[in-house]
Every structure is written in C-alpha cells, then in structure tokens.
Amino acid sequence: METAFNLDQSIRKVKDFPKEGVLFYDITSILTNPDAFSYCIEKMVDIYKNKKIDAVAAAEARGFLFAAPFCEKLGIPLILIRKKGKLPGKVLTKTYALEYGEDSIQIHKDDIPQGGNVLLVDDLIATGGTLKAAKELLEEGGAKVDKAFGIVGLPFLNYSQVLEGMDVVTLINYDSE
Amino acid sequence: METAFNLDQSIRKVKDFPKEGVLFYDITSILTNPDAFSYCIEKMVDIYKNKKIDAVAAAEARGFLFAAPFCEKLGIPLILIRKKGKLPGKVLTKTYALEYGEDSIQIHKDDIPQGGNVLLVDDLIATGGTLKAAKELLEEGGAKVDKAFGIVGLPFLNYSQVLEGMDVVTLINYDSE
Fold first, then answer.
1. Which residue of A has its CA nearest to B108?
2. Which residues of B touch A111 (CB under 8 A)?
3. Distance CA A59, CA A89 (A)
4. Which of B26, B37, B76 sits opposite A34 (nearest CB)?
5. What is the pLDDT of residue B12?
6. Domain assignment present for A101
7. What pLDDT score was predicted for residue B1?
8. CB-based contact (8 Å) between B17 and chain A?
C-alpha cells in the first residue's frame, strides 16, 4: 500500500499566496488526512531510524507538526528553532538575510547536544536560508549538523546550493511552473 | 512506572518572561526529555481514545507540538488555529480582546467537520481567551466544541470561567506564587 500512496494529491496548491505570482504548497491538507500524515511520519522514521541522530531541531511553526510525532516515535530530543523573543531560556541568536530585509532565529543554548548529531526538520525547503542559519547556530553551540529533512522540496529555489555539503532529503519535489 | 513520573520536574519555570512579574511555564524542557514527552502524549491518548473526537484543533505554535503526535497516533484529522495571514485557503476569522489590544485567529473553513466533535489543544491554558475564540469560530463553521486540553493549567487566571460549560483537562496545574 505504501508505495501506492500519492502524496501529491494531499498537498494543496494555492496560487498567489502569500503574494501575487507565488504558488504556495500547503501541507495543512496533509494534516487533515490521517493516512497522508501517517505516511509522512512513517517515511521519516524509515529514513532515519538507523542513523545516529541525537536531537532534531524543528523550524517554527509548521516544522513542529512533522518533527514532534517523529521525535515522539523514536524517543529523540526535540529542539525548537523559533523567531526572536519566543524562547524564555538562554538563547543563541542568528540574524540572516531574506529577499527583502532580514530575520532572526533563536535556539535554547542548553538544549544543544555537545558533539551530537542534529537533524534539521521543516515542512518545506525552498531557499534553504532558515535551515542554513539554524545549522550555523547549532554548530556555534557545539553540535554537528549535516542532515536536513523536508516534506516538500522546491529545488528550483536552489536550496541545494545554500545547503551545500548537507544530506537533504524531501518526500516530494516540485519544479517551477 | 507511569504514576511515578514527575511532570513538574520537566517543566522549566522562568521568572520575568515575557515581561517583569510573570512566571513563565516553559514546555520546551518536556520536548528535550523523550520520557516526559512520551508521558504527555500517552496521557492524552489514554484520556481521549474512547471519546468520540472527529478532529483536533491546535493553537499556534506550541499547541502543534502536542496535538500532532496525538493526532498521528489516533488517526484524527488535525486543524490549525493560526494567527491572521498564515493560512492560504478560505478562512474564518475571529478577533478577540487581549489584556492590551486585540488579536485575530483564523481556521481553514473547509477543514471544519460539519456536526463533528472538535477537541481544542494547547500547551498551556491560562485566561482561556484564545481557546474561547477558537471554540466560537469552529461552532460558527458548523462543529461542536465542548472539550479542551492543555498540558499545563493556570486556574488562577480563571480559564474555567471563560470556558464555562466545557470539559477542560490539564495534566498539571500551578497556583499563583
């Protein structure tokens, strides 16, 4: 059954969101379909169960949705990658460039496993900018980061260049229209 | 073993966050402790597995962390309660009062099960304001909402008054200092 599952049918495509000219790949249609959601989590477990992963770092907020069941199933600690000002403990902060302007992410310093392997998880990997900033932040904090996972990949936005040297896995990729 | 688990020890208390005079109950220390995280999800499953729940609605962003593993385990559709502007599909919007100012939440209209029972999930229930707004929104959309769950409850902030008539369950409660 698993190989016959069509994940594409469970991903809604919304034109002109969040702005004109952008085709948005919406994963909320996976969440409302328990078969699709289980398929994604089981795939993640299959891919990573035999890799040595000491912690997962998940990007706010949609990354939480896939990282949490995965971590709970495998008993792996879950670290949050949050926007500035959301985490109450001692944090490491990284500011990075966006298409227009910049953004800042934070991670709890004490959550980072010293010398441990951290897997980055997000729902969708596009430019790779946030994951690159997260990788740098985790490495500054003492972890090793050479793996990233996304349900959806948009390779035409060149994440493989930005995340060069990393092992990036996605369950489904879309080309530019 | 389960009854001996001390959840309190896995919840970090941070003084003066996000502002002076507030004691913040931080659940990220549950996420980095796989035993604590599993304990919470298993408790949720035990509490709700025999109730007739057609969907879960989870509050952004920390509510996602507990709702997602719970929904995945029980095969229940997961609806997101998000801040304005995050959901790409047709939405219902509710604006509600905060201590200072107001906030708006949105839910995908087509995700709401007509006549179905929806369980509200968040990490922490304090004033109950967001969950009340979510309940009203889901009911406007055609669902029944009489159950809410939080890992942590702060009853001294009077959520039981705001959520009057609802069956509200929390795993641990804290009194005012």
1. A28
2. 28, 32
3. 17
4. B76
5. 97
6. yes
7. 45
8. yes
Structural domains in chain A (count): 1
Tens-digit pLDDT profile for residues B89-100: 999 999 998 878
| Banded pLDDT at B103 (limits 50, 70, 90) | very high
Q: Is B82 a catalytic residue?
A: no
Q: Is A63 contained in some domain?
A: yes
Report ipTM for this prediction: 0.96
| Interface membership of B120 toward A (CB under 8 Å) | no
Closest Cα in chain B to A69: B69
HEC string for chain B? CHHHCCHHHHCEEEECCCCCCCEEEECHHHHCCHHHHHHHHHHHHHHHCCCCCCEEEEECCHHHHHHHHHHHHHCCCEEEEEECCCCCCCEEEEEEECCCCEEEEEEEHHHCCCCCEEEEEEEEECCCHHHHHHHHHHHHCCCEEEEEEEEEECHHHCHHHHCCCCEEEEEEECCCC
Terminal Cα distance for chain B, rounded: 30
Report if residue A139 sits inside a domain: yes
Cis bond upstream, residue A134 (ω within 30): no
**Three-state DSSP class for residue A93:** strand
Per-residue pLDDT of A66-117, as tens digits, reads 999 999 999 999 999 999 999 999 999 999 988 788 999 999 999 999 999 9
Q: Is residue B6 part of a domain?
A: no
Q: Which residue of chain B has the CA closest to A24?
A: B88
What is the domain extent for residue A154?
A: 53-173
Spatial separation of the C-alpha atoms in residues B36 and A132, rounded to whole Å: 30
Query: Which member of B38, B72, B85 has the closest CB to residue A41?
Result: B72
CB within 8 Å: A37 and B72: yes
Report the CATH number at residue A110. 3.40.50.2020
- For A132-155, write each residue's pLDDT tens digit: 999 999 999 999 999 999 999 999
Closest partner residue to B77 (CB to CB) among A17, A26, A32 is: A32
A92 at B interface, C-beta within 8 A? no
Which stretch of A150-154, B1-5, B28-32, B120-124 has the lowest confidence by average pLDDT? B1-5
Q: Taking all residues of chain B, what is their mean pLDDT, rounded to a whole number?
A: 96
